[in-house]
TrEMBL record:
Key words, A-Z: Chemotaxis, Cytoplasm, Hydrolase, Phosphoprotein
Organism field: Desulfobotulus alkaliphilus
E.C. number(s) listed in UniProt: 3.1.1.61, 3.5.1.44
Residue ranges occupied by any CheB-type methylesterase domain in the UniProt entry: 151-350
Native organism taxonomy: Bacteria, Pseudomonadati, Thermodesulfobacteriota, Desulfobacteria, Desulfobacterales
Top class in the EC scheme: hydrolase
GO terms, biological process: chemotaxis
Domains: entry comment: Contains a C-terminal catalytic domain, and an N-terminal region which modulates catalytic activity.
Protein name: Protein-glutamate methylesterase/protein-glutamine glutaminase
Chief place of localization: cytoplasm
An annotated GO cellular component: cytoplasm
Catalytic activity: L-glutaminyl-[protein] + H2O = L-glutamyl-[protein] + NH4(+); [protein]-L-glutamate 5-O-methyl ester + H2O = L-glutamyl-[protein] + methanol + H(+)
Keyword Lyase in record: no
Length: 353
């Protein structure tokens, strides 16, 4: 049996340290070796006890998180990987960019306590897969500069989400049949789906989903208006984009060159949606081979959008979602069976309901 992944928790909040340790305690392949309140204590701990991963807050006394991160990354190899989990005030995208630039392998905003209690399951679902991904893959190759998250003005997302985007490939039809019927029962927003499939197969997929969903599910056509309670499946072999036309948003199909060998391309849909809806997007990256969707996710994050990904265990291939996680672009990770519920909870919390 392989040795467990060892973790040091660094945070000035004892409540959060205890909550994170408890959330990871049931993970057989992850072992928390220590918990300290600031960067200085962390460096002292590491002198005596090496670990594989450090989870790090940014706002701490004596030695703040970014100073600690830089000190840790300068340690002799093998330096531990650093996962930043912070509730530091300011723009999340600024903090994400600074953390990744300083050497963190991912950044997660701290979950908000509900009725005085931290959501342990959500914390575990956000942290454990990122730890495993980093240890399994090593430090991910950096994205090209144009794909790195950029700073953005802090803005409230209350009442803002206007569309749900889905990117999926290998294992997608089964995942969509699990997700979409539940999603349609709980959300009236339009849903745009890119499923990697050859021509002629996406129409039958749309018809099959239409029979199971409370919303209308169609294979997208050029010039269609994007409307609530409708799911649009990109036709196989054609890119699907969105464009503003006066007060309406319409679908544009084209036969442009494949991106990363894919047509339709998740990246192309995500980039066009970022230009149209900006931060008012919730994107879901599901099971699939390759990296399609990662550059588009970066464009969405620059615009302030929110991105959920499917977890490794329930994915047939954890290529597309794993790539988004490794790039530090995902906001949360969920099994496909609970993704619709998570979306509903997110939309409800953002609407102030």
């Amino acid at each position: 049996m392989p040795s467990p992944i060892t973790v040091l928790i660094v945070d000035d909040s004892r409540i959060f340290r205890n909550a994170l340790a408890l959330s990871l305690s049931e993970e057989k392949d992850i072992k928390v070796l220590g918990s300290v309140r600031n960067g200085r204590k962390a460096l002292e701990f590491l002198e005596k006890t090496p670990v594989d991963i450090i989870t790090l807050d940014l706002d701490m006394p004596e030695m703040d998180g970014l100073s600690t991160l830089k000190a840790v990354r300068s340690l002799k190899a093998p330096a531990p990987g650093v996962l930043v989990i912070s509730g530091h005030a300011g723009s999340a995208e600024d903090l994400r960019r600074e953390s990744l630039a300083a050497g963190a392998f991912a950044y997660i905003p701290k979950p908000v306590a509900v009725a005085g209690e931290l959501p342990l399951e959500r914390l575990k679902n956000a942290v454990a897969p990122r730890i495993r991904s980093y240890v399994k893959r090593g430090i991910p190759s950096p994205l090209p500069p144009e794909c790195l998250p950029c700073p953005d003005a802090s803005r409230s997302k209350k009442n803002q989400t206007e569309v749900i985007l889905i990117g999926v490939s290998t294992g997608g039809p089964k995942a969509l049949h699990v997700l979409l019927p539940k999603l349609c029962r709980n959300a009236s927003l339009p849903v745009l789906v890119v499923q990697h499939m050859p021509p002629d197969f996406t129409l039958s997929l749309a018809e099959s989903l239409n029979a199971q969903c409370s919303h209308r599910v169609v294979e997208a056509e050029d010039g269609m208006e994007v409307l609530p309670e409708t799911v649009y499946i990109a036709p196989g072999g054609r890119h699907m984009l969105v464009r503003k036309s006066g007060s309406k948003i319409k679908i544009v199909l084209n036969d442009g060159p494949a991106e990363k060998g894919c047509r339709p391309s998740v990246d192309i849909l995500f980039r066009s949606a970022a230009a149209v809806w900006e931060h008012r997007v919730l994107a879901l990256v599901l099971t699939g081979m390759g990296r399609d969707g990662t550059q588009g996710a970066a464009s969405l994050k620059r615009a302030g959008a929110t991105i959920f990904v499917q977890d490794e265990k329930s994915s047939v291939v954890w290529g597309m979602p794993g790539s988004v996680v490794a790039a530090g672009l995902s906001d949360a990770i969920f099994p496909i069976e609970t993704m619709a519920r998570a979306v509903h909870q997110y939309l409800t919390s953002c609407s102030g309901a």
